Amino acid sequence: MCAATALPSQSAEFPAWYGEVVRRAELAESSPVRGAMVIKPYGYAIWEMLQRELDDRIKATGHENLYFPLLQPASVLAREGALVDGFAPEVALVTEAGGRKLEEPLAVRPTSEALIWSTYGRWIQSYRDLPLLYNQWANVVRWELRPRLFLRTTEFLWQEGHTAHETAAEAVAEALTILHDVYADTVESVLAMPVLRGRKSRGERFPGAEDTYTLEALMRDGKALQAATSHYLGQGFARTYDVRYTGRDGTDAYPYATSWGASTRLVGGVVMTHGDDRGLRLPPRIAPHQVVIVPILREADRAGVLQAAAALADALRAAAVRVRVDDRPEHRPGFKFNEWELKGVPVRVELGARDLAAGVVTVVRRDTGEKSEIPVARAAAAAGELLDDVQASLFEAARDERERRTVRDRSGYVELTEYLSRAAGLVEAPWCGRSECEARVKSDSSATIRCLPIDERPAPPGACICCGRPAVTTAVWAQAY
RNA sequence: CGGGACGUGGCGCAGCCUGGUAGCGCACCUGCUUUGGGAGCAGGGGGUCGCGAGUUCAAAUCUCGCCGUCCCGACCA
Question: Crossing angle, helix A302-318 and helix A379-404, to 10 degrees?
């Protein structure tokens, strides 16, 4: 590999590595507006795969899609105090349009609870109208102070679900169904990103939420990424926007709400979870090209090799594999190898006269670099098996890496905060539940509580790592994106 | 908003200190030869140096002001 074209080292300069991978793999680039990015076709193709996986699960759990507008009167947003407190600093306002100053400024949505709940009032009259299970695919704008491609952009794409229910229990169950059956399933089985499932501490909750459920993933630089969130909103929004219905007993009632979202941030998560010094490593289930066939062309056998490549591509397509034959004449094979590795294509097939003569194809997997020769007749089947194996291996490698970087011992407050402040990974430890301790860890290490895990493990008895009082729960700390 | 760096063809940079109207690598275009790990040779196109003002015979270069970008923190999916 030539030094002039090598990527920055992932371990030594992670932010530079990340930016270069996103740019050179042609996922996205920045635009004239600070923090707003252009998502390029290859990056958008990944988003479309992910979008479809999420959308299928959202529908499978009984939801319908609809669409609310980008703009809403600023006063509608302002009615909900929690949203104002939470989002005011990052809301963009339209104050002028059609050549004149507007009577009332319009807010560009930072999220849609306000507009949607101000509308739901007309849609919810009876308990028979419940539950309302709606989702929208949309763009939102949050004026972030420090944007980063995919991870925190001024405008981003996401889905936001907004549901209304008769009972609190039903709403909580909804929020958890989304967390597990939609988000965790997609993120783990499709994106191959292992996640911790948990609740947010009070201080980290969504504005207006009674409970925020979250998926937290560990990136290869030791920081945590919130992969998706699902909120139980109680009756707060219903009360603010005066959404009432006649209940089964004939009296007025306020519905219970949830909202939940996952965004283009996940694309950044895939880069930071699986990428290596050669570039992207895409899990096969979201790879726009799962297999790339690179024909090795020499004048004498050109036609035969191309024909064999086309035949193999047909066989792979018949097996529902997304395949591309890279027959560009302007580049030599070595260039293509590097380019497709940078772009993270899970499996590469090399096919030249040498292979044809031997009745084999050369197959290389991106995750391990392992190279093997496979009889042509078995190539399509073998590629399918290999893709499954790459998918599973990426997940296992990421899970092992997370475990390796998770500290569970009680070595002492100073050691733990030191571990956290250099973003070495996760700390899982008992917590007394008091925000004083949460704040102290943050000021000592700049790490925050990522979640209070809701997995199978019972909260271990013990003393709060910070103050030593009896713990009420286990908490997971880390530096966060 | 605080700290740091930087704005020069598409991208990455040099030139600035010691003013004399722009150069390198990659990319791009044409042709030929190549093709199993980022090809070679030959030819070619493209910028007036972030913006504004000033000094000067002359400004990418010196002075002043402004704007913008990136990185590190506080806010955040």
Answer: 70
